[in-house]
Amino acid sequence: MSPLSAARAALRVYAAGAAVVLAQLLRRCRGGFAEPVLAPQPDRVAIVTGGTDGIGYSTAKHLARLGMHVIIAGNNAGKAHKVVRQIQEETLNDKVEFLYCDLASLQSIRQFVQKFKKKKIPLHVLVNNAGVMMVPQRKTRDGFEEHFGLNYLGHFLLTNLLLDTMKESGSPGCSARVLAVSSATHYIGELNMDDLQGSRCYSPHGAYAQSKLALVLFMYHLQRLLAAQGSPVTANVVDPGVVNTDLYKHVFWGTRLIKKLFGWWFFKTPDEGAWTSVYAAVTPDLEGIGGRYLYNEKETKSLTITYDLDLQRELWARSCQMTGIIDMTQDTFSG
Ligand SMILES: NC(=O)c1ccc[n+]([C@@H]2O[C@H](COP(=O)([O-])OP(=O)(O)OC[C@H]3O[C@@H](n4cnc5c(N)ncnc54)[C@H](O)[C@@H]3O)[C@@H](O)[C@H]2O)c1
């Protein structure tokens, strides 16, 4: 990416954010965001990545309140004990726990899945929520650019390693569900297949948007694979809106100042930001339905290229190579 494209990416990200904030403000003036009414979900198990903070914390809390067994997968072990106790006390649900998983390390993800599988419990909901935004150019343990490696590839591997358990846990009429938390920034994202790691010219804005675009392509391709296999698992994308969390620590100082002064009014609260994830995780309206982009609990169109089947397939194949996963695409669609 040239310096000019990097500057353009930054402007487009801020413009996309401003458009969402404006829409949220209008909605607040017209009555705000209402919590979806959802039925209790006893005996169901969920994993929420990044569930110690922000939207993930609220998602984990709401799922626990519905009676689910919630496993928070995260890298913030220091905070985990307090968070788990807080959710248990607030929801009166003891089945909340933390398992360490550093999504910036393929080895850590594999170890997490091993530990989870040792529990011999089902998995009905996987919320791929964790993320970083606009961090300076850094690499994951495996040498991937951090946005691409953590936000996207980490969740790609995690999901693929958990799919067998999810297929066993879902049943016709009661599907297991995979969700990926994307963002409006995907609309201005570009997937640079020749330089997915942004090594030529790094733009933190472009890299974040690309990782969120990759998640959408991933969920759509996964949904097609699952449907072709007749698996009782669905895959959808959720967009939380612009939410008042710590995600913004690396953005331009002016944006941080606006957030500090007016975030309470312009931004969604973490609870409001979590509602689309919680809705997509449990609503009967989405039973058996996948391949959707959900915003404010409603289906909406994602960027046109996300529906490009060749691009979905190409990204999937490259991601399999990068994470050491066997690509089942050919077998599934040919047989
Ligand atoms: N806040 C927003 O306005 C907004 C808008 C659109 C999309 N999102 C998306 O929502 C998701 C949640 O973000 P948030 O706003 O709650 O941010 P946050 O910073 O409050 O939470 C991010 C979580 O990800 C976890 N995480 C970071 N690196 C990790 C790693 N290496 N391994 C495991 N976990 C790791 C953190 O520990 C934290 O729990 C992100 O995917 C973000 O891109 C947020």
Kindly describe this structure.
With 335 residues, this protein is of the alpha/beta class. It has a single domain (3-325), classed as NAD(P)-binding Rossmann-like Domain (Rossmann fold), CATH 3.40.50. 49% of the residues lie in helices and 12% in strands. It contains ten helices and eight strands. Strands 3-2-1-4-5-6-7-8 form an eight-stranded mixed β-sheet, sandwiched between helices. β4, α5 (146-169) and β5 form a beta-alpha-beta unit. α4 runs parallel beside α5 (146-169) and α5 (146-169) packs across α9 (309-323). The longest helix has 27 residues, at 3-29. It is globular, with a radius of gyration of 19 Å. The protein starts with a helix and ends with a helix. The mean pLDDT is 95. The structure holds nicotinamide-adenine-dinucleotide (NAD). Nicotinamide-adenine-dinucleotide (NAD) is lined by residues 49-50, 52-56, 74-76, 101-104, 129-133, 150, 181, 183, 240, 242-243, 245-247. Nicotinamide-adenine-dinucleotide is lined by residues 49-50, 52-56, 74-76, 101-104, 129-133, 150, 181, 183, 240, 242-243, 245-247. One of its GO terms (cellular component) is extracellular region. It is an enzyme of class 1 (oxidoreductase). Pfam families: adh_short.
Topology:
Blueprint: H1 3-29, E1 45-49, H2 54-65, E2 69-74, H3 77-91, E3 96-100, H4 106-118, E4 125-128, H5 146-169, E5 176-181, H6 204-229, E6 233-239, H7 253-266, H8 270-282, E7 293-295, E8 298-300, H9 309-323, H10 329-334
Parallel strand pairs: 1-2, 1-4, 2-3, 4-5, 5-6, 6-7
Antiparallel strand pairs: 7-8
Helix pairs in contact: 1-6, 2-3, 2-8, 4-5, 5-6, 5-9, 6-9
The chain binds nicotinamide-adenine-dinucleotide.
The site of nicotinamide-adenine-dinucleotide has 28 residues, from α2.
